[in-house]
What we know:
The protein has one domain (19-248). It has helices spanning 2-15, 50-53, 55-58, 71-74, 98-101, 232-243, 254-264, and strands spanning 33-40, 66-70, 89-92, 108-109, 124-132, 136-144, 146-150, 159-163, 166-173, 178-185, 193-199, 202-208, 213-218, 228-229. 27% of the residues are buried. Strands 1, 2, 3, 5, 6, 9, 10, 13 and 14 form a 9-stranded antiparallel sheet that branches. The protein has 7 helices and 14 strands. Strand 5 and strand 6 (136-144) form a beta hairpin.
Amino acid sequence: MLAKHALLLLLAALAQDPPATAPADGLGLRDSRLELLASSEPLTGTTYQFEHEFPLLGGFAPATARASYGADAFRPFLPPERAPEVGQVWRLDATDALPFLRQIHPGATAALHHDLGAGTAAPGAWACLRALDAQHAEVLFRVHAEFLLEGDGAPERSTWLTPAQFRGRMAIDRARGTVVGFELSLPDAPANVDMNVATAQGVLADIGRIPRLEVEGGSFPTFAPDASQVDDSEAEALLARKFYPFAEVEWLDLPAARAASLATGKPLHVVALFGSLTDESC
Length: 282
């Protein structure tokens, strides 16, 4: 009887869910799966009408419309600390985002071709713990990556699509140790992609807009007002500063800057931009 009782206890223990990969005060994931959908909309609004001149750029269907991912695909986006704090920022390996981006296009790469060793690009990825309560956690992250659409990767023989950035979000059910929501998308903006096209006449460049380019699935919980959290804009600013140290500077639009100059007597330092200063588009 004792042997039978011990065997029943052992079988009951084996039937339970496996433990999470982090202690209770941290964030861990058990084995589970989440299906993500990929979607895209056509390129539009280019300066030189590239979407009409080059069919390759006009638009492409996702490589895989639906794909299922296990816990191992999401674990690299977890905070590295046993007891993470809201607002904490940490570096990610941008290559861990490539399986998701290759659901959109197989040419996704974390190496930014336009740098050419000059240090002008800001490659990589960073994450921030945006919200945390007893039931859920939410991680916001930013990835810089691009798509090799055609060619062997040599700048003079290849066609590239370079998004401004990819913005990611992951929600975790802490009690179950599962990812309940995930998205990785190109933020919409009047100009959010660059393109370099290899032609017989040389490499041609343009800038334009893709309204929607993303993989997403699941759902995201609503955190109570008294939950420990920072808002999206603050988290995004924390991430931008990791890519671009000059983002620490307080930038003002011209009317506000002029008013501040008149009030303080300080001179204006004016920067005129075509595009954005704090992303990888033009």
